[in-house]
Amino acid sequence: MIQDLVQHIDRLIQQRPAAKTALTPFRELALLMVQVDPQTKPVELEKGVMDMKQQEGFPLFSRDDLPLDFNAAADLLKNFLGHLGATDRDDRKGLKKALKKARDTDGWSRNLFKIFLRQDEEALTLIAGEVDLNPKVIQFLGQVALIPSIYALRDAVSTNIDTDGWDYGYCPVCGSQPDMAYFAKTGRRYLHCELCGEEWVFSRIRCPFCDNEDQETLGYFEAEEEEGLRVYFCRECMRYLKTIDKKAFEEVAPLELENLATIHLDLLANENKFK
Ligand SMILES: [Zn+2]
Ligand SMILES: [Zn+2]
Question: Which PANTHER family match (predicted)?
Answer without folding.
Answer: PROTEIN FDHE (PTHR37689:SF1)
